Every structure is written in structure tokens, then in C-alpha cells.
Amino acid sequence: MRYEVDFLVVGSGIAGLSFALKVAPYGKVCILTKGDAAEGSTRYAQGGIAAVMYDSDSFDKHIHDTLVAGDGICDREVVEMTIREAPDRIRELVQYGVNFDREGGGERFDLHREGGHSEFRILHHKDNTGEEIERGLLEAARRHPNIEIKERQFAIDIITQHHLGQRVTKHTPGIECYGVYALDCDTNRIDTYLAKVTLLATGGMGNVYSTTTTPVISTGDGVAMVHRARGVLADLEFMQFHPTSLYNPAEKPAFLITEAMRGAGAVLKDRNGKEFMQKYDERLSLAPRDIVARAIDNEMKLSGKDYLYLDARGIGKKHLIEGFPTIYAKCLSIGIDITRDMIPIRPAAHYQCGGIKVDRNGESSIKHLYAAGECSCTGLHGGNRLASNSLLEAVVYAHNAAMSAIDTVKSVPFKSEVPDWNAEGMVLNEEMVLITQTKRELQEIMWNYVGIVRSDLRLQRAFDRLNLIFRETEDLYNRSVLTEPLSELRNLIACAYLIIKMARARRENVGLHYSLDLIVKKV
């Protein structure tokens, strides 16, 4: 099947939905999402969205906190732009129907504080902020007559000049995007979507690791597609590991214990119930995530244990139950009463700070292709994302991309000569065990060798093993009918390669990249 739309959006989280709502008055919008529309990283965000809303805080303080967390390699102009735009974007979310908690039910927003923040500036909805944002935006999008949402449609490749028979390399000037090929997951048919403007809002790549807080659909699809299309990518060595996921090995993804709980007074403790963060940072349990995650990782290695504890009992029973109802209920379901018991925790892969390199308008190096949200690299996060800046970045760049796309779409024609997907000669490979086992092997390699702490030897070992996995999978791909599991595996392998390649090129310990062979920190 062939489709033509003015604006094509791949992904239905905060970035994709915000963009779609803003461009919808100017043309036909189609949103493709490979799972259910509500499923994605946005709905798993517990903590909230950071913004300066009152005089007790200031833009300069938020800017400073972001630059400090980013370890000196943020794009300062991007940081200033994003943070100064934040209040306007928050007001728009409220207009779309998103409900943030307010003090005593009044007009003033109730604000949390999280690690790395010098002030209380996190807008939230209890401890399920992302779910509330997703609900509000999705309902607004479904009401709009110009927006069509197509679920279980898996974008597998960006259409460029390559598909017209031209040789495209990373040095080819003027690479253009004409839309995407997408797999209908119910019929296994690959359809052609032609678009004047395409936005990738495909989320992250957390499932490249064996332990992650991200949903199972976070397989780096957008980054992998841009990699194959020879677009520019950056900073993928900076994978953020959230310090506190609930230790429950049978469960995937790992359940997140929001940083806001530490902001409310919860304290990290070792297996003997003793505090340990004083050995690592004067900010203790509220130090930035890279420092806290490394501290927990080191304490686990010293003790030989698989988990440590977060002690939230000092917060108080009423505040715990009312302020963190999702966490309270989740822990209770596995026999942990957080008003009486400490919470077993361990770090988990959580957020990619790098991705598809975009300009201030969210446009990638490929013409007419935009990216927003976790799959993009704007320069805001630098070496380490400040807590709750991710949802902010997504909504700011969705807005900027929309403003640019509205202007661009007027002069871009459809590329009608694009051919349909050719699967001639391919056979349906039924050996799912090959894909499942390879994926598991890849995730273990990345967790063990390219995780919180790295070394030259570990990166080399990961690269050598990944090379074998890559050759085996490409051989399978070249003779098989394309399926969702096979495509996801190829994307994860591409992302793993990019993380390792950029980690080996980064010859300094900075932000989230920490190698035992690079002892001198960036100043």
C-alpha cells in the first residue's frame, strides 16, 4: 500500500503528539506507532518536567544546574533557549488537558526537587507524570480531524535518494527524506509512506542493555534508521543509568523508583543499612545521576551483592502513600511495605543523552527529516541529563520543529517515483530462537562491557563479539522476509555498535562515560 501525507510522525510520545497537534491545522498528519499509541517511554516517566515557574527560582539557576550536570559539554545557547521557553510550553500542555498537581488544590503548582537541582522546580502528577501527559496529549490528538493515528506500524527505513538508485554515503551532500517504509505488524506487509516532512520521535535504545527501565519497544529504531541513511549522529557514548530501579529480576522492564523520592528525603543505604554516599559526593543521595549510579555500582562490587537499598521510611507514611501511590502499590504487590521496609534497588539503563544530531529547529542533517525527544541530540544534556529535563526538551523541540515544518511543507513536493519495498526471493524464517538468543547475548555483552564503568579492554571485547553477531544477523536478514523481531535486532546491533564506537573515541572521563583507563576527569 502507498500513502501520501503532509506530515509524517513516527512515534506517539510527548514529542510526536506535541508536534502533530501543532502542525495539524496546516495539513494532513499521520502518526505511526509500532505498538499501542499509549505505549512508549513518555508514559513511564514518573518524576515530572522541569521548568522555572515562580520568582523563588530563576532561569539562571536552572541553566547553571543543567550545565553542571552536563559536565561542561552542553551547548550553552541551547540550554538557555530551552529553559527560557519552558514556561510557555508548560502552559500549552495545560491547555491540551494535562493536569499537574497543585498546592492544596489551588492555582499554584506543587513542585518537587530532584538530584542536581538547586530548587524545587519539577511539575508532576503524583508519581505518574508521564502517564498523565500521554493521556492528555493523546486525547487531544484523537479529537483532531487532521490527525490519523495508525498503531502497530513499524517504521523500518527512511526513504532517501538511495532508494532511487543513487549511491549515498555520509559524504553525500543534500541527502533528502521522502518518507518511510513501514511494516504492518498484523499483516507483515511493508507499506510506503510518502511525506513532505517527517518527524522521528521514536524514543530511546534502553533495550540494548539487559537491565533497563525503558519499555520493550525502546530498541533505537530512529537512530538505527538514520545511521543506515547516513545521517549525522552524536554523543551516544553517554547512556544514562538510573541509580534506582526496583530490584525484581523476574520483571522487564525494571520498575523505576523516581528520583523525586530522594528529593523528598529518601536515603541510599548499603546492605547493612548504613549510608554510603558521603564517600562519593557532598550532595549525598541528591548528587547527579552519573555520580550516584557509579557509587551504587562500586558498592555492589565491593559487597558482591546484586542490590542495595533506598530507605524512604523517613518521608512519613502519609506523604509516601499520597505522594508516591504508584511506587507504594508496586512495592506492596511484591511484599515490600515502603512505610516499614527499605526498597531493594540497583541501577538500570534509562536514557540516551545522544542521538540524531539536530539544529535549533529540530532538523537533522537529512533534509525534511526532523527528530525530537530521546532519539535526538540537541546539545541540551551534554555528558549527562539533568533529571526531568527530558520531557522539557521533547516539548520545546517539538514546538520548534513544528514551526519550521509548517514553513517548509509549503514548498516540498511528494517524491512519487519512490519504488515500493522489494522482498522478492525472501523466505519467512521461522527460527525465532536465533533472534531471541542473539538479542539476549547482545544485551549481556553491553551490560557487562559497555555499562556504567568501562575500560579499553572491555570495549574491545564487546566490539569483537558484536562483529560476529552483526555478520550472523545480516546473513539472516539478507535471506529472510523482514519481521518485527528481526528488524528490532538489527536496530539494537546498530545502536550497540554506535555506542561502542563513540565510547572508544571519547578519550576523557566526562559525564556518563567513565573508563578505568581514563583516570583524569575533564575540567
Short description:
The chain is of the alpha/beta class. It has helices spanning 14-23, 41-44, 59-69, 76-96, 129-143, 221-228, 260-263, 289-303, 317-323, 325-333, 389-408, 432-449, 456-477, 484-505; strands at 2-10, 29-33, 49-50, 111-112, 122-123, 147-151, 153-159, 179-184, 189-200, 233-234, 239-246, 267-269, 308-311, 343-352, 355-357, 369-371, 376-377.
Q: Could you explain the architecture of this structure?
A:
A hairpin with a 4-residue loop joins strand 8 and strand 9. 36% of the residues lie in helices and 16% in strands. The mean pLDDT is 93. The longest helix has 22 residues, at 456-477. It is an alpha/beta fold.
Principal-axis shape = globular
| Total number of strands | 17
The separation of the N and C termini measures 55 Å
Q: How is the biggest beta sheet arranged?
A: 7 strands, mixed
Q: How helical, in percent, are the residues?
A: 25-40%
* Computed Rg: 22 Å
Query: What share of residues are in beta strands?
Result: 15-25%
**Weakly predicted, low-confidence segments:** none
Q: What is the residue-mean pLDDT, rounded to a whole number?
A: 93
- Based on secondary structure, the structural category is alpha/beta
Count of DSSP-assigned helices = 14
